[in-house]
Specification:
Order of helices and strands: EHEHEHEHEHEHHEH
Oligomer: single chain
CATH topology: Spore Coat Polysaccharide Biosynthesis Protein SpsA, Chain A
Shape: globular
Radius of gyration: 17 Å
Strand content: 15-25%
Number of helices: 8
CATH superfamily: Spore Coat Polysaccharide Biosynthesis Protein SpsA, Chain A
CATH architecture: Alpha-Beta Complex
CATH class: Alpha Beta
Distance between the termini: 31 Å
Structural class: alpha/beta
Strand order of the largest sheet: 3-2-1-4-6-5-7
Number of domains: 1
Largest sheet: 7 strands, mixed
Length: 250
């Protein structure tokens, strides 16, 4: 706990057998996680077996692969069931360090922000940490366009390291959101639509063969979805179109 707030850490896992234990050990080292939840989205490796061997982990296994967004929906549903006040989502691919969790959770527990992102871009270390150049450039372009359309000033929209206040998550129409990678972008647009503040902390990044990432084809689809959604956000703000069905009610 931090400031009397119960903290649940959720890890949407897919083929994370080689990195899950390292991520888990750093989560435990922070000393703030009251609950640790792993959802295995029908991995083809030993992710489930590794998770079962980790003390104190609550494991849920999808019998078939449902997608990254659907994995997170299960994560948040289980986290709500624990009564957690703050939910931290981190990819178990060891690309992000869990050691930043106390700082991220403190910003929420203190009442300053309902959402905190761990940003790979903010500290300028993404390329030094091994982020492929094409991925860095696409991240920067998509973020620039997202900020242009929403009026926000985020350093990146595409991080897999996020902390949320329970009250904020409960306002978001998560079940109406995508079951695929587009889910992450939708969540941030939903939060911005509600005019809720978002904080960012700089997060060192590690890219290595075991770290998972989507391929170029799926990245192209994701980027197209982000651009179209940002345009719809701006047009809806101007009252020129109805808000998308996955936008929260204001």
């Amino acid at each position: 706990m931090i400031l009397g707030k119960k903290v649940a850490v959720v890890m949407p896992a897919y083929n994370a057998a080689r990195t899950l234990r390292r991520t888990y050990e750093e989560v435990v080292a922070t000393g703030i996680a009251d609950e640790i939840i792993v959802v295995d989205d029908a991995s083809g490796d030993e992710t489930t077996a590794v998770a079962r061997a980790l003390p104190g982990v609550r494991l849920e296994v999808h019998p078939r692969n449902r997608g990254y967004g659907a994995n997170q929906k299960t994560c948040y549903h289980l986290a709500h069931g624990t009564g957690a006040d703050i939910v931290v989502m981190i990819h178990p691919d060891y690309q992000y360090t869990p050691l930043l969790m106390p700082a991220m959770v403190s910003l929420i527990a203190s009442g300053l922000y309902p959402c905190v992102l761990g940003s790979r871009i903010l500290g300028g270390g993404a390329l030094a940490g091994g982020m492929p150049l094409w991925r860095y450039i696409s991240n920067r372009l998509l973020t620039f366009f997202g900020n242009l359309m929403t009026g926000a000033k985020l350093s990146e929209y595409h991080t897999g390291y996020r902390a949320y206040a329970r009250g904020l998550l409960e306002k978001l129409p998560l079940e109406a959101s995508s079951d695929d990678f587009f889910f992450d972008n939708q969540v941030l647009l939903q939060i911005l639509w509600l005019k809720q503040p978002i904080a960012e902390v700089t997060c060192p990044t590690r890219y290595f063969p075991e770290a998972s990432s989507i391929n170029f084809r799926r990245s192209l689809k994701y980027g197209t979805q982000c651009v179209l959604a940002a345009c719809r956000y701006r047009l809806a703000r101007w009252g020129l179109i109805a808000p998308p069905s996955w936008f929260p009610e204001i």
